[in-house]
Amino acid sequence: MIQQRNHLIQNILIAEKLDAVLIFGLANIRYLCGFTGTDGVLLVKTNESVFLTDSRYSDQAQTQVRSDRVHCYNNKLKAIVAELTSCQSQCVGFDADVVNVTLFNELTAMVGGGCELRPLNRQLEPLRGIKSRDELAALKAAANLNKQAFEKVLPLMRAGVTERDISLELELTLKRLGGEANAFDFIVASGVRGALPHGVASDKQLQTGELVTIDFGTRVDGYHSDETVTVALGEVDRKLRQIFDIVLEAHDSALAAIRPGVAICDLDAIARDFIVAAGYGKYFGHGLGHGVGLEVHEYPAVSSRTEQNLVEGMVITIEPGIYIPDLGGVRIEDTIVVTADGFEALTSIPKQFKQINL
Ligand code: ZN
Ligand code: ZN
Fold first, then answer.
1. 294-305 mean pLDDT
2. What is the per-residue burial (b if ≥16 Cβ within 10 Å, else e) of 70-91?
3. What are the backbone dihedrals phi and psi of residue 59, each rounded to the nearest 5 degrees, phi first?
4. Which domains does the chain have, with CATH numbers?
5. Which strands, in side-by-side order, build the sheet including 20-23?
6. What pLDDT digit, counting tens, does each position of 99-136 carry?
7. Which ligand is the nearest neighbour of the Cα of 183?
8. Mean pLDDT, the chain, integer
9. Looking at residue 1, what is its pLDDT?
10. Taking a C-beta distance cutoff of 8 angstroms, is the pair 166, 241 a contact?
11. Tens digit of each residue's pLDDT (9 = 90 or more) over 63-94
């Protein structure tokens, strides 16, 4: 186990009075012991950590995994139960957000009445919330690929090109530059499709006079980039320009408020109140942002319901938007890290109004 991270789990064991924790989620597994494969379970006890995986990953696990032991199994559930029985665990936590009901029921039946399996949710959520220097370097590298790829693809944007063309060019460019995988299905939403906050690239052709919202990201060393740019193709209608300016100001004012100790829900309120005051509140239906790391959406959510405060080292997005049916939409998104006295932007594509002259 990576020592400092083992410490975080040991604190949970003590606080929750648990003998052990089973980690099924791949992002947490990678975070805690370094395994990058796609199947395995990490068992953390007070005195030992064991990584369980199958024969496909035995070599990889031996070289990659930083646990006290690696246990190679033929039957995953039997192996877990054997480990729990051998150390006479009576109360074992597990990451409830990734274990489905079938797995939970099977495991409960197999461990029997002597061992309680306890779902952990909020307790594990903040685990990856504060990023280390290495994590920030990977996040920054991923964000830099976004900038390079966008610069290469921007000249292709003109009337007649489809949203899908733009999305594919971004994808290929990011991968040529070293991106490991798309962070998610890219959104390229032009004209009236801009009113769909999650308008995945379609066969629609871009047209003069439209705003085009592009939300894309890649992955470097397991860490994601996430950024949204809205650009104008030629001259756009006054109302579209107006909503662009409102979204940009909402985005900038939320960024300006970022510093350790600020309530995350207050950040959401700063951007939202501004959009509400401008008369577009009902067209901003989603939260202001989310954490980014080994998963593209992770703790902390940046919304009106979030109870935590900002902490130095948290990486979050700020992404207000206005989406007006039958007209179009604007979203502007940056990923930032909270620093001791404010924030540092990881994403770096300029966000001011940009009109591509055709
Ligand atoms: Zn995004
Ligand atoms: Zn996002």
1. 97
2. bbbbeebeebbbebbeebebee
3. -65, -50
4. 2-127 (3.40.350.10), 133-356 (3.90.230.10)
5. 69-73, 49-54, 41-45, 20-23, 91-95, 116-120
6. 999 999 999 999 988 899 999 999 999 999 999 999 99
7. 1
8. 96
9. 80
10. no
11. 999 988 999 999 999 999 999 998 888 999 99
Instruction: Report DSSP state, residue 160.
Output: T
Do 203 and 165 form a contact (C-beta atoms < 8 A)? no
**What's the gap in Å between 247 CA and the centre of ligand 2?**
15
Report the pLDDT value the prediction gives residue 113, as an integer from 0 to 100: 86
Distance from the CA of 56 to the center of ligand 1, in angstroms?
34
Closest ligand (CA of 215): 1
Report the predicted TM-score, pTM, of the whole model to 2 decimal places.
Answer: 0.95
249 in Cβ contact with 318 (< 8 Å)? no
Is the model's pLDDT at 198 over the cut of 90?
Answer: no
Give the ligand whose atoms come closest to the C-alpha of residue 182. 1
**What is the length of the chain?**
358
Distance from residue 227's CA to the centre of ligand 1 (Å) = 5
Q: What is the CA radius of gyration of the chain?
A: 23
- Residue found by looking up tokens 């379970």 in the block: 41
49 and 1 Cβ atoms separated by less than 8 Å: yes
> Residue 293 is encoded by which pair of tokens?
């790391």
DSSP, res 203:
S
Compute the distance from residue 156 Cα to the ligand 2 centre, in Å: 24
Q: How far is CA 192 from the centre of its chain?
A: 27
Closest ligand relative to 229 C-alpha:
1
- Residues 332/228, Cβ–Cβ less than 8 Å: yes
Structure-token match 């068992």, residue found = 43
Give 50's contacts (C-beta < 8 A, 6+ positions apart): 42, 43, 67, 68, 69, 70, 71, 83
CA of residue 284 to ligand 1 center, whole Å: 15
